[in-house]
Amino acid sequence: MKVFRRRGGVKALNSGFTMIEMIMVMILLGILSVTAISLFATRDAYSARVVADQILSQARLAEQVAIGRRAAPTTTLTLSLSGADFSGVVAQGGYVSQREVDASGVSISWSQSATTSCGGGALPATITFNQDGDVINPASGGTTNTLICVSGDTAYPICITTLGYAYEGFCES
């Protein structure tokens, strides 16, 4: 039997991981991380995040429709919760965009002019935009901030400013 030796007469020692060992370690780490992440994530947290993203999306669409189409003096964003289904509807004249998502375990509250804390009325809510994209309060005739709070395991406050811009966070006064 032949033994391969290096030039100095010393047998070469292999050290480190082989490619197969490295791949097996990566696979095991992947399996463990997926298992560990599922222990921390719940459906309520995920549903609340999806609903909050949908509200942001529909609010930004409502502002764009109000500014861009100008087919009617106002554009409305109607948010409603029916059982476990959330619905956001943007309407102006003959234009309607409706999006629905599952809202199991999610509660939604809203108020106009409240800026620093979640609370207020339950859905349905109708937010009205004028042709400049500003949020108007039909009761007072003026512009106003609107705060929407989506709560599951985590609360997601969403502010729609008087200028119609929607962002995640509490409204600034």
From TrEMBL:
One Pfam entry name: N_methyl
NCBIfam families xref list: IV_pilin_GFxxxE
Name used for this protein in its record: Type II secretory pathway, pseudopilin PulG
InterPro entries named in the record: N_methyl_site (IPR012902), Pilin-like (IPR045584)
